[in-house]
Amino acid sequence: MYQVREFAAPLLLLALLALLIICSLARYFTLPNTDGECAPYWLRHRRANHVAFLLALIVWCSLARMYFSVATFWTVPLTSNFLLLLTLRLIDTRVLERRWTAQDIFRLALWGSVHPCLTILLMAMGFERSYERRLSAPIWLLAAGVAAVVGSMRLRSAQGFKKRRVKSGTLYARTLQLAKKMGVSIKWIYVIPPGRGTLTNAFAPWRGVALTDNFGEYLRGPQLDYVIAHELAHNKNNDGKKHFILLLTLPMCLAVLSFAFASVMRQHGSALIALSLLAVLLSHYAVSRRDEYRADRDAVLLTRNPEAAIRALAALYSKTNTPIERGALTELFMTHPDFAKRVSAITRLGAVSEDRLAQLLSEFGVSDDVFLPTR
Question: Which of 157, 207, 332, 357 could form a cystine bridge with 187, CB 3.0-4.6 A?
Answer without folding.
Answer: 207
